[in-house]
């Protein structure tokens, strides 16, 4: 890591905003001073300007019971009304809200008027199924318009959605359903991925029967969108077709105002333990920051821009920068169902040309993949409509940043590297296009109204030219309001490292200008292709396999995916049998077993968690107190010389492991 950062800090390329960009830029430099004068008042101003409040708020921040913040608490609004009805009422009903592109090449468009009408019908369907304010609805859908419609319909009636990424397994889905006690699941028969239909409904069926009759779920109904056309099993009374329900639905639904702190959604994310955390977000503050950041960081001109975030709604980027931010701002956007390489590797660029996309928001992993494939692929398409590029999810190395700007952005577009988290709800650190001189590889500066610090172990600011731990020192509107059902874990995870400050779990360095360079997680959380995975969760999946005695998982750096999951396991000779003491025990077919274990993790958690490699070893490096020294395993996984082993209980162990692996 330190080698990397030294290279990064030698990065001297700078890109000042062009005059032409600056001339019509949305963001202005005075935002910083205005925010610094009075942070809560600044957010109040932004909120009044960007949102419609049925009942205007009279207070901004209530921080009397930290870390439980309340923003705009006496105000009332309806999130879906803000994303839909008000744009229609303002005369923009004919503006395109969604250009949807299916993977096989089918497509659909929805104007704001049409999207509003669909959400009204879906809201009345939810009400007819007995969903009311505060109830939890799990959404397990591909990237189809119904995903957006479902989320907004849930929000419209004051219920709470929990979107579960379609790549997660039946077990992961069930764990999330149980934790939130969801009454309804909205799913599809299947969706298109990599040229074929990938089923979803069977995973819902499986998830709801886990544990048999003694373990009933809280789910009363499963609402099924027909998309894949694949055959599905049916439980009469429980399962309902979306299209049947919508066909019979009432078409009028008046959005009711709800208090600003009404829960909007729960989104599960991995932490340092085996159990995912249900991150809770509420309405007024969240929507304020979503709209403000979407408008200013992406330089949104809603009348002319065509915006595209390639994120799935299963992740926070899909919540804040596909659904809530863009729609609150009345933007026109593209959503795409499939993978970037189906049916050909130019698919993204073809979509940009087709719709005239002006703003693209994507992850470094994808950019590095395209870089490897070569510029002749994007060069075949007309990408001249693009005028702004965004990056999110993991650090973007300067080479990829410059390639993104040169090859995709025609050498002229600003690139904004945006740092934030599921927990922060919205972007926290980013350049402002038209204002900031860009530095490839750095997320740069805290947004107006956001107070970021980099601290040493004792909680002292490190100052320029030094590294430390990244914290948010003041409450912000889109901050998580807690972990669903677990206030103690909320306090312990984020607020106990530094008194009164939010600890993000990331390391960071300030350069000589005070700009922020992200260094990755400092806890046992991995970042694979911009998705967060927990070492503990994958370890516990591995040890649930009858042949595994012990497991240790590390995130090893990977050229394309940022990090990759690498597992080290100690196995038994047969199910429940003796632990194999040497890895070259002839009774064990290590390559077959490694393949089986990779598959086991994929089926238990989801394909994103499938280890890149599983090494079968005889020992794991542990301290005298029994803690696994992941640092040493990372050295092995990354093919480096092994670091300091003096604190190991058995100092021989590493030479044995590297002998096995090497
Ligand atoms: C973690 C949050 C934010 C939406 C996608 C991921 C890493 C995120 C950046 C960036 C360096 C980044 C951090 C953070 N991360 N954006 N621009 N530069 N690192 O959301 O799953 O909640 O993960 O992603 O490590 O803590 P998430």
Poorly predicted tracts of residues? none
Give every kind of bound small molecule, once each: 5'-O-[(S)-butoxy(hydroxy)phosphoryl]adenosine
Count of structural domains? 2
Q: Summarize the amount of helix as a percent range.
A: 25-40%
The assigned CATH architecture of the largest domain is 3-Layer(aba) Sandwich
- Overall body shape: globular
Q: Specify Rg, calculated over alpha carbons.
A: 25 Å
CATH class of the largest domain: Alpha Beta
Number of helices: 22
Quick check: average pLDDT?
Answer: 95
How far the N terminus sits from the C terminus, by CA atoms, comes to 22 Å
CATH level-four homologous superfamily name of the largest domain = ANL, N-terminal domain
Largest sheet: 8 strands, mixed
Structural class given helices, strands, pairing? alpha/beta
List keywords for this structure.
single chain; alpha/beta; Rossmann fold; GMP Synthetase, Chain A, domain 3
Question: How is this structure best described in words?
Answer:
By secondary structure, the chain is an alpha/beta fold. It folds into 2 domains: about 500 residues, Rossmann fold (3-Layer(aba) Sandwich); about 140 residues, 2-Layer Sandwich (GMP Synthetase, Chain A, domain 3), CATH 3.30.300.30. It has 22 helices and 30 strands. The strands form 8 sheets. Strands 12-11-8-6-7-14-15-23 form an 8-stranded mixed beta sheet, sandwiched between helices. Strands 5-4-17-16-18-19-20 form a 7-stranded mixed beta sheet, with helices on both faces. A 4-stranded antiparallel beta sheet has the order 21-22-24-25. Bound molecules: 5'-O-[(S)-butoxy(hydroxy)phosphoryl]adenosine. 5'-O-[(S)-butoxy(hydroxy)phosphoryl]adenosine (WT7) binds next to α13, β20, β24, β25 and β27.
């Amino acid at each position: 890591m330190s080698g990397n950062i030294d290279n990064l800090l030698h990065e001297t390329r700078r890109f000042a905003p062009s005059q032409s960009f600056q001339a019509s830029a949305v963001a202005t430099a005075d935002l910083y001073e205005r925010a610094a004068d009075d942070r809560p008042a600044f957010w109040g101003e932004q909120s009044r300007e960007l949102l419609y409040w049925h009942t205007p708020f009279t207070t901004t921040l209530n921080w009397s019971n930290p870390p439980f913040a309340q923003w705009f608490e006496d105000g009332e609004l309806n999130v879906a009304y803000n994303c839909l009805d008000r744009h229609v009422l303002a005369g923009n009903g004919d503006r395109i809200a969604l250009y949807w592109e299916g993977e096989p090449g089918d497509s659909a468009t929805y104007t704001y008027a049409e999207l509003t009408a669909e959400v009204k019908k879906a809201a009345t369907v939810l009400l007819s199924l007995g969903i009311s304010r505060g109830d939890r609805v799990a959404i397990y859908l591909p990237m189809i318009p119904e995903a957006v419609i479902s989320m907004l319909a849930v929000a419209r009636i004051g219920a709470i959605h929990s979107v579960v990424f379609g790549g997660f397994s039946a077990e992961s889905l069930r764990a999330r359903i149980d934790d939130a006690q969801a009454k309804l699941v909205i799913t599809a028969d299947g969706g298109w991925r990599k040229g074929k239909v990938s089923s979803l409904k069977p995973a819902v069926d499986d998830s709801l029967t886990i544990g048999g009759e003694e373990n009933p779920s809280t789910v009363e109904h499963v609402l099924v969108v027909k998309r894949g056309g694949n055959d599905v099993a049916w439980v009469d009374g429980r399962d309902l077709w979306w299209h049947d329900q919508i066909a019979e639905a009432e078409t009028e639904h008046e959005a009711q105002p709800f208090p600003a702190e009404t829960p909007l959604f729960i989104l599960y994310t991995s932490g340092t333990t085996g159990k995912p955390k249900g991150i809770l977000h509420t309405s007024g503050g969240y929507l304020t920051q979503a709209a403000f950041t979407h408008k200013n960081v992406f330089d949104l001109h809603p009348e002319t821009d065509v915006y595209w975030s390639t994120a799935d709604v299963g992740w926070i980027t899909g919540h804040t920068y596909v659904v809530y931010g863009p729609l609150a701002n009345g933007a026109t956007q593209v959503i795409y169902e499939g993978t970037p390489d189906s049916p050909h590797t130019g698919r993204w660029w073809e979509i940009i040309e087709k719709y005239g996309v002006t703003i693209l928001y994507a992850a470094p992993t994808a950019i590095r993949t395209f870089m490897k494939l070569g510029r002749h692929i994007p060069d075949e398409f007309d990408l001249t409509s693009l005028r702004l590029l965004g990056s999110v999810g993991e650090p973007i190395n300067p080479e990829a940043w410059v390639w993104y700007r040169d090859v995709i952005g025609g050498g002229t577009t600003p690139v904004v590297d945006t740092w934030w988290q599921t927990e922060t709800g919205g972007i926290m650190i980013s350049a402002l296009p038209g204002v900031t001189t860009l530095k490839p590889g750095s997320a740069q500066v805290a947004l107006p109204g956001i107070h970021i610090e980099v601290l040493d172990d004792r909680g002292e600011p490190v100052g320029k030219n030094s590294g430390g731990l990244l914290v948010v020192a003041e409450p912000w509107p889109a901050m998580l309001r807690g972990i669903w059902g677990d206030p103690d874990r909320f306090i312990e995870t984020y607020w106990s490292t530094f008194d009164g400050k939010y600890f993000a779990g990331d390391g960071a360095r300030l350069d000589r200008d005070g700009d922020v360079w992200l260094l990755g997680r400092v806890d046992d959380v991995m970042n694979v292709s911009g998705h967060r995975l927990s070492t503990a969760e994958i370890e516990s999946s591995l040890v649930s396999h009858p042949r595994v005695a012990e497991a240790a998982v590390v995130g090893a750096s990977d050229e394309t995916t940022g990090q990759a999951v690498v597992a080290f396991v100690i196995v038994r000779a047969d199910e429940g049998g003796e632990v194999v003491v040497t890895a070259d025990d002839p009774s064990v077919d290590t390559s077959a077993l490694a393949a089986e274990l990779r598959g086991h993790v994929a089926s238990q958690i989801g394909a994103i968690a499938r280890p890149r490699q599983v090494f079968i070893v005889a020992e794991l490096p542990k301290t005298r107190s029994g803690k696994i020294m992941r640092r040493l395993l990372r050295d092995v996984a990354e093919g480096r010389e092994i670091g300091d082993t003096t604190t190991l209980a058995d100092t021989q162990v590493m030479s044995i492991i590297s002998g096995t692996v090497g």
